[in-house]
Amino acid sequence: MDIVRSLPPSLDAAIFFVTHFIPGQKSEVPRLLNYLGGCPARQGEEGAPIQAGQIYVAPPDQHLLIAEGHIHLSRGPKERLNRPSINVTFRSAAMTYKERVIGVLLSGMLDDGAAGVCEIANRRGITIVQDPYEAKYSSMPLNALRDAPVEYRLRSYEIGPKLSELVAQGIRQTAFTGESFRQRLHLH
Fold first, then answer.
1. What is the pTM of this model?
2. Residue 153: which CATH number?
3. Is residue 179 assigned to a domain?
4. Which residues are 71's β-sheet partners?
5. How far apart are CA 6 and CA 143, in angstroms?
6. Max CA distance (Å), the chain
7. CA distance linking residue 96 with residue 107, whole number of Å
8. What is the tally of structural domains in the chain?
9. Which of 26, 30, 39, 63 could cross-link 88 (Cys pair, CB 3.0–4.6 Å)?
10. Sheet of 15-17, strands arranged across
11. Spatial separation of the C-alpha atoms in residues 44 and 56, rounded to whole Å
12. Smallest Cα–Cα separation from 15: which of 93, 88, 72, 74?
C-alpha cells in the first residue's frame, strides 16, 4: 500500500503486480489499488497493450507474461507450486525489456522470486527487495538477498519514491540518454 500510494499517476512506466490466490477466487486487488490512488490498476487481460502509468494485476491461477508492448496470460505449469509465479513474470520482462526492467520483490513465503530477480540482474535490469525485517513474511526477500544480485534493499515506504526516481532518471542513464521511458518501450 505504501508503494502504490507514493506512485505518481503520471509515472512513465507500467507496473505489473503478482500475488497468489486460491484458484477460482476472485481478486479484489485492482479495486483495492485503485482505492489507494496513484496509478490506476486493472486485472491483466490476454493481449492487452502495455500502457505507461497503469498497474496490471495477474489474474488468479494465471501466469502474467510480458511481451513486446503487450501482455500474455497462461495457465502453464505451476512454478515453485505457484500460478501465477513472479519468476515467470520477472523472466518474461527481463527477456523482453532487458536493462529497462526494474524488479521489486516483496513479502512472501518460500523462495518464489529469487530466480526471477537473478534473471533481471543477468540482463542488467535493476533489482529491489523489500527489507526482510519489515516484511510480514520474510522468506522471499531473504532468499532473493541470499541467492540473487540485489541492488537495493529498501523498506516499503522507500520503494515507491525509488521507482519514481529510477524511471525519471531513465533507469540506466548511461544506456538511455535522450529518450523517455515510454519511447524506449515503444509505447506511444
1. 0.88
2. 3.40.50.180
3. no
4. 66
5. 26
6. 45
7. 25
8. 1
9. 63
10. 15-17, 55-57, 41-43
11. 5
12. 93
**Hey, is 88 helix, strand or coil?**
helix
Whether 182 is in a domain gets the answer no
- Written as one string, the DSSP assignment of 138-167 is -HHHHHHHHHS--SEEE-HHHHHHHHHHHH
The one-digit pLDDT tens for each residue of the chain (188 residues) are 889 999 998 999 999 999 987 777 888 999 999 998 889 999 999 999 999 999 999 999 999 999 999 999 999 999 988 899 999 999 999 999 999 999 999 999 888 899 999 999 999 999 999 999 999 999 999 999 999 999 999 999 999 999 999 999 986 543 333 333 334 333 33
HSE on the CB side for 113, CA within 13 Å? 27
Of 138, 91, 88, 136, nearest to 111 (Cα)? 138
Q: Which three cell numbers stand for residue 104?
A: 521489486
The verdict on residue 185 lying in a domain is: no
What is the Cα–Cα distance from 143 to 113, expressed in whole angstroms? 8
